[in-house]
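Hey, I'm writing a tutorial for new members on how sequence and structure tokens pair up, and I'd like a real worked example in the thread rather than a made-up one. If someone can provide the structure for the chain below, I'll link this post from the tutorial.
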Amino acid sequence: MNNSLKNKPSARDLMEYHAEAMFTHDRSGRLHLVNEPWPGSDPAPRFFLGRTTGGKNVWRFRHDVPDQLVKQLESWCAEEAAVVDFQDRPKHEKDYWNLLQGKKMTMGPCFSIENETREPSVDVQRITPENVRQLAREGFEWLADEISYAQPCIAVVQEGRAVSVCRSVRIGTKAHEAGLETLEEFRGRGYAAAASAGWAAAVREFGCTPLYSTSSDNLSSQRVAGKMGLSFYGVNFSIY
């Protein structure tokens, strides 16, 4: 068997990487905070469910969810089927919501950026603390506050300034999650896909897997995933 195929993470592996990058965990595997790389983080969701295309799912609970509720939630999680379409709702969505007396719910598709993803179609440049003020003017000034934390950060640069930026907004030991922004007047030109491809290559240099996830209603991010031919491995679902 080809070594690259043999060592390729499964859909469940990727969902485990995703959960580890997205949230901080204690020694018992319970969630505490959203794993933002910069100072100051919000509480993690009370419940996280990662359904995968392979049918082997991943679930997590925040540290303050009682054990009695955890047992019931786990029994429902074990009944969730493999996902085929990222708009498919969880079988026990209403049960989860009612048991936890949820206040907010989020859901969205998860993708991995494979090694075979095509190279950036335009030149990209790394943004660092040293060049951020020069490159981030006229639209990305806010990057200066987080650039030391959100690395790697890769940009498509036009006329000396960044117009599309992809950076690490969640960082785990095995994977990074992409955060992607393109200035409105430069959208629809393939720049987001180019920045994402450049970022993915930089993440691999760190020995990590580049991941990309978004929400079910973020059609622009889903279009980027389609243009890049990303590999769909599952759907995340969280209740707060």
